[in-house]
Amino acid sequence: MRAERIAKVGTVVSAIMASSCCWLPPLLIVFGVSSAGMVATLEAYRPLLMVVTFGFLGTAFYFTYRPKGKKAGQDDCCEPETTSGRRRFNMMTMNKIMLWAVTAMAVVFLFFPQFVTRLLAPDNGTITPDMNRVALTVEGMTCPGCEVTAAKTLRSAPGVLAVEVDYPSGEAAIGVEAGRPIPKEEIRAALKSIGYRGEFVEPVPK
Q1: Domain 121-201 has CATH 3.40.140.10
Q2: How far is residue 107 from each of residues 12, 61, 100, 189, measured CA to CA in Å?
Q3: Within 13 Å and on the Cβ side, how many CA atoms surround 128?
């Protein structure tokens, strides 16, 4: 049924869009495209897109599992098994399998976006005791997947050797070569390019 297919496609598309605030910015960064302001815009629409996703999913379940009425004059107890009947049964089974596959995809994109974005996570190095270190708060992160975006961007700042970003605390640690000054302006500019804002913490936590 056309409405059923539209509901399934709508479920997947809206679920992907609802999680795009997590996976789209790091994907664009991989291709060298700036995502300034994009995270905040996408996050603002996330609740609406989640509602739309569940609406499409509910519609798909309705069309897939709703009782099928019998045709006029059809005998309830003596219906012959025909090729057409078997084909219809196989099609119904396939529709149900597809529906549950769509449901699984929607759950993955809605509730586990960090697993998707971590597939794109780069090597951000390891902060060692001999490095010149600095900590800063990062404002603008909206989900665990934002750690990937922030870390990738901070790592690209001149002189930065290693980065650690923690979404729950909203903080990041940066390591540069020993004896080299921290490129604070470059770090702030890098965060600004993706719609985040950073404030340095003094003194550096041990």
Answers
A1: no
A2: 10, 15, 10, 35
A3: 6
Closest CA to 29 of 149, 113, 170, 124: 149
Separation of CA 94 from chain center: 28
Give, for all 206 residues of the chain, the pLDDT tens digit: 688 888 889 998 988 888 877 777 666 666 666 665 666 677 778 888 889 999 999 999 998 888 765 544 555 555 555 666 667 668 888 888 999 999 998 888 887 666 656 666 667 888 999 999 999 999 888 777 788 888 888 998 999 999 999 988 999 999 999 888 999 999 999 888 877 889 998 655 44
Which tokens go with 3?
């409405």
pTM over the 0.70 mark: no
Residue range(s) of every CATH 3.30.70.100 domain in the chain: 121-201
Tallying the residues shown for the chain, one arrives at: 206
Q: Which among 33, 98, 23, 13 is positioned nearest to 61, based on CA atoms? A: 98
